[in-house]
Design brief:
By secondary structure, this protein is mainly β. It has helices at residues 68-72, 75-78, 192-198; strands at 64-66, 85-99, 109-115, 124-130, 145-156, 159-172, 179-180, 202-212, 226-229, 237-239, 250-254, 257-260, 267-278, 281-286, 292-293. The strands form 3 sheets. The protein has a 5-stranded mixed barrel with strand order 2-3-4-6-5. Strands 8-9-10-14-13 form a 5-stranded mixed beta barrel. The protein is elongated, with a radius of gyration of 50 Å.
């Protein structure tokens, strides 16, 4: 008598668990570029410190050496128009120049005219040093002595001067260069430029005649000068006996009267001296009676 099957039917509820609906992981991948920086390969600074010693060389204070012609060609000397004393250069050296005149007896100074050995245009200048005439060795120098000089370049009422601060005798020459110049090319009838060329130089004029025995200065007085030219009517050049040789060509003996030693018409084969600019005129200063040669 088998019992009937009384097994209860399976009433287990179906699995209603929700499916996991978590969104997929959408986190973005890290897209940062890989670090490509190159390693620092800079070499360490191995520069040695600057050990150069500072330049302690002393500046050269040796005076610049010039010729007289170079000094006279400077604009301030060559084209002078100003009165008074004007300084142009300091500490200039002249080497091997020649004492070209006797001592000039100017008050308070010892003075000579000096010249480049070879002469030529612009080659002469007036050189002076403070002191009583002939009182120092400088004043004992003689024509023909060759010297080195140091000094300062100036103009004094357009006469170019070399103020001597030191000197040294280095030799002597038997002859001094002389420039032969036609009388019409210097003095009253010449250009200012031509007179400048020969200022301070030793020159000679040939075949001249005395044309005036009375030359009045700016003060209205005569100073013992004469004028010469190609004829007795030609008043080309003032001749001044003022280089210490104790002569005057004429002297004022009273109002309007003159004692004349060289009358108008006196002829000279040659007159040699130095050219000087003074009181607005170019003048020839002979060296003495022997430098005024008659026919």
């Amino acid at each position: 008598t088998t019992q009937p099957d009384t097994t209860q039917p399976d009433t287990t509820q179906p699995d209603t668990t929700q499916l996991d609906t978590m969104s997929a992981d959408t986190t973005q991948l890290d897209t940062m570029s890989a670090d490509t920086t190159q390693p620092d390969t800079t070499q360490p600074d191995t520069t040695q410190p600057d050990t150069t010693q500072p330049d302690t060389t002393q500046p050269d204070t040796t005076p610049a050496t010039s010729t007289i012609a170079q000094l006279n060609s400077l604009p301030g000397a060559k084209n002078c128009t100003a009165d008074g004393s004007i300084s142009l250069l300091k500490g200039v050296k002249l080497s091997g120049v020649v004492i070209a005149s006797p001592l000039d007896p100017i008050k308070g100074y010892e003075a000579f005219y000096i010249q480049d050995k070879g002469g030529g245009p612009y080659s002469g200048i007036y050189a002076l040093r403070a002191g009583a005439t002939g009182s120092t060795p400088f004043g004992q120098l003689k024509m023909g002595d060759v010297v080195d000089l140091v000094g300062n370049l100036e103009t004094y009422y357009c006469l170019t001067e070399f103020k001597v601060t030191s000197w040294n005798v280095v030799g002597a020459v038997p002859d001094i260069a002389v420039q032969v110049i036609p009388v019409a090319m210097i003095g009253e009838t010449a250009s200012a430029q031509n007179n400048e060329v020969w200022e301070g130089s030793v020159v000679r004029v040939d075949a001249v005649v005395v044309s005036s025995t009375v030359v009045l200065g700016d003060d209205g007085k005569g100073h013992g000068e004469i004028m010469v030219g190609q004829t007795s009517a030609d008043k080309s050049l003032i001749v001044t006996p003022h280089l210490g040789w104790g002569t005057t060509f004429s002297s004022n003996t009273g109002p309007g009267t003159w004692l004349v030693s060289v009358p108008v018409g006196t002829a000279y084969k040659s007159i040699t001296g130095v050219m000087r600019w003074s009181f607005g005129h170019a003048r020839l200063l002979p060296f003495g009676d022997a430098s005024m040669v008659k026919p």
